[in-house]
Amino acid sequence: AAHRGNLLAEACPSREVLKHVTSRWGVLVLMVLETGTHRFSELRRSIGGVSEKMLAQTLQWLESDGLVERIAYDVVPPHVDYSLTPLGLEAAEKVRQLSDWIEVNLPRVMAAQSGKAA
Asked: What is the pLDDT of residues 51-63, one digit of tens each?
């Protein structure tokens, strides 16, 4: 039987997965891909502020973790599709719950930041 990870242990590989899934760009990529298959250019347009380099790196991380599937079509110009694996869909659902909570509670957070009660 596989052992579960321990995020509190410094050497546990689960820390790398946590970094990939909960990084700003990781969360946003998972949220966009939860809506379906997208090309790189579509992802870049959908996620405001992400650089080409960071998007490519984030997709590589999520692909190596088994969360994103990359399908390259042998055509000119090259066409690459990105979609979530079943594991990636589970992860996307989890980060979307957190993202939804942040969006809904943003007024309360901003009130706290400015020192006023919401």
From this structure: 999 999 999 999 9
- The conformational region for residue 36 under phi > 0 = left, psi -120 to 50 = alpha, else beta, is left
pLDDT of residue 47: 98
At 40, list the tokens.
């790189």
The owner of tokens 């490519």 is 56
DSSP letter at 27 equals: H
> What number of other Cβ atoms are within 10 A of residue 75's Cβ?
7
Give one DSSP letter per residue of 41-61, joined into a string. HHHHHHSTT--HHHHHHHHHH
* Matching residue, tokens 């870049």: 44
Alpha-carbon torsion, ordered 30, 84, 37, 75, to 10 deg: 120
Distances (CA, A) of 78 to 15, 73, 75, 90: 34, 6, 5, 29
The answer, yes or no, to whether residue 67 has pLDDT greater than 60, is: yes
pTM of the predicted structure, to 2 decimals: 0.89
pLDDT at 116 over 80: no
